[in-house]
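Structure in, sequence out. Go:
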């Protein structure tokens, strides 16, 4: 039997990239035949600092070589304390954030479940407002606030207590953004259950690289304040510098009540997630929320080192914004080159998308790119967006090479 017969058919990425990956450094993965691939997917945003960053790798090797504690539930360890202190001093405090850190379990969905659960406990309400094309994870709570019909279909039970609302520009500017939501909230005949929280992404990665404007996010934040609704920003994919600043909502100048982080927070691709909550929301009794994998020592160690290395100054932030603008310029040129195809350049920072007329076209571009040694995936409700999440640390030469492969692939597919 081949291993793909041993494994469930639910696997997905290995279908787009049918080879066996063996080694990886920086922005490059190598398969077992030694063929190199530029990785413009970076673990769906879990590898913002690239594969096996040498300084972070050294931290893991030293950690293991000296028999430090690998698994610790939520017991105190120097690694946990170092992470908490470094995260506070370097990320939270300079941004004026006084949020408490909850370690909700190893994955992004754990962080989202904790956020939803706590928001409901704090407010005593059940409903959560979510947005069209939002993605928050595959567990039942996270799936209930996720838009994608195919993913929701896997739940097997009704997904309830979520009220979908239009994301920024859903109606192409035809309707004032918060007219409908605010009207439902205030109208005695609106039929809306008072929401505990609103959950939103500043840029919808899985949903097709849709960006919310800063003023839209500010409007949402104001509306939440006016109605006593908690604002949850899911920064699992767009946080840790993906859009430039550490948190994707910094540009908008808002302060969410609850923030979820995962994907790149360990800095090394190790499982780790955080739910950050304003101090007055920190009301769970000891052990009321719990989990076995909330203290993975090597992940704390690489997370602390990654924050010291990349977030002690604004070098990475400025480079991400500059590289993002290069991608935007090349995508805009493609849009102009194929006027009949209605391509759309989307995204912010180094979260970028090129939208095609159909999922088939976007998928064909990704397949051509794979043949040319570039890993890129699609996103969006119909998989119609070619999605770029390269490591933030890639070189200008690697960025240029990857973009050239995309241009060549688009030329083959669109003719
Ligand atoms: C990936 C992702 C999640 C889910 O994280 P998992 O680790 O896959 O559970 C949730 N929200 C957003 C925005 C994500 O990109």
């Amino acid at each position: 039997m081949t291993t793909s017969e041993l494994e469930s058919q639910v696997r997905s990425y290995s279908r787009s990239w049918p080879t066996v990956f063996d080694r990886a450094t920086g922005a490059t993965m190598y398969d077992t035949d030694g063929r190199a691939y530029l990785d413009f997917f970076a673990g769906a945003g879990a590898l913002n600092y690239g594969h096996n960053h040498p300084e972070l790798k050294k931290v893991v090797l030293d950690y293991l070589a000296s028999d430090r504690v690998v698994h610790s539930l939520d017991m105190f360890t120097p690694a946990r304390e170092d992470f908490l202190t470094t995260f506070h001093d370097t990320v939270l405090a300079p941004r004026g954030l006084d949020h408490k850190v909850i370690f909700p379990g190893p994955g992004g969905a754990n962080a989202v479940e904790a956020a939803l659960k706590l928001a409901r406990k704090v407010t005593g309400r059940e409903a959560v407002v979510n947005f069209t094309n939002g993605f928050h994870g595959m567990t039942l709570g996270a799936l209930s606030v996720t838009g994608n019909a195919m993913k929701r279909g896997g739940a097997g039970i009704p997904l309830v207590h979520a009220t979908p609302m239009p994301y920024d520009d859903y109606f192409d500017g035809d309707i004032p953004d918060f007219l409908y939501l605010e009207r439902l909230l205030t109208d005695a005949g609106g039929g809306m259950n008072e929401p505990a929280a609103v959950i939103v992404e500043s840029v919808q990665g899985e949903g097709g690289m849709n960006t919310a404007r800063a003023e839209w996010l500010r409007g949402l934040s104001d509306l939440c304040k006016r109605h006593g609704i908690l604002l949850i920003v899911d920064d699992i994919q767009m946080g840790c510098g993906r859009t430039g600043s550490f948190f994707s909502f910094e540009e908008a100048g808002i302060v969410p009540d609850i923030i979820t982080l995962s994907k790149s927070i360990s800095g090394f691709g190790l499982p780790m997630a955080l739910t950050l909550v304003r101090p007055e929301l920190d009301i769970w009794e000891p052990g009321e929320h719990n989990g076995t994998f909330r203290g993975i020592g090597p992940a704390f160690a690489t997370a602390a080192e990654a924050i010291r290395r990349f977030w002690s100054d604004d070098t990475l932030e400025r480079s991400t914004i500059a590289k993002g603008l290069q991608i935007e310029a090349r995508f805009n040129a493609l849009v102009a080159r194929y006027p009949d195809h209605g391509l759309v350049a989307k995204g912010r920072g180094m979260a970028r998308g090129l939208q095609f007329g159909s999922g088939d076209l976007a998928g064909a571009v990704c397949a051509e790119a794979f043949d040319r040694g570039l890993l890129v995936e699609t996103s969006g409700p119909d998989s119609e967006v070619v999605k770029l999440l390269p490591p933030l640390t890639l070189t200008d030469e690697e960025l240029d090479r990857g973009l050239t492969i995309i241009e060549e692939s688009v030329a083959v597919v669109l003719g």
